[in-house]
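Encode chain A's predicted structure.
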Amino acid sequence: MEREFMNVPFVFYSQAHLIKVLGRKANNVEALLEGIKNVPGSSIYYHTHRFLQQHHYLSPEPPNDFAYWTGSILNEARLSESIASVDTVSFVRIEDLRQAFVRLLTDYLAKTNKGTRCPDGQEFYFRSCQTFVFPSGHVAHDLREFQDQVGRVTVQSLYFHMFEAPLRLKKEESDFVAWFKSIGEVELAKKVARLDPYTMTLDGLRKRIIRLAGDYVSTKH
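Encoded structure for chain A:
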């Protein structure tokens, strides 16, 4: 259920994941494609969005699991670059993201006769995760408090509100952007919405949000 932001404080949430091994693996590109076609959406999420969160220190353009495996294990550099170029956080629906990978891998297999197999023991193992969401204990009643609290929350909380919550609620904007709009900070909302997560780490993203919010706080005092 979509939360109402109007006239209410911003409650920061965080998340934890329970990882599940699906018992499916791939040893070449064709098997990877078949796996992506058939695993549950939670597995596509795990190998893309959760990878980005877990490796938030990688910048720029942190890869997803599919790109990492095809590049590092199969040594398919061109394919790895193509997979890494998929803007995973721009997809509102996981099924749309799945189909983007399916099209890319299908096209690649149609254009190449390569049947590269990975070394034994380095197969791609499909996993999924069950996500638990809970209040973090941080609350902001106005923009000044938001600027302070966003600097205190974990990167897991930051990631949840910037990337995962929109995906779960099938919205085109993050929780922060929606809340800024609800308190009348439309220009701030636009600036935060334009931030590119692929050009900075999550901590870097946090600093940019703090700086932008601070600019608007200073104009009101």
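The chain has ten helices and two strands.
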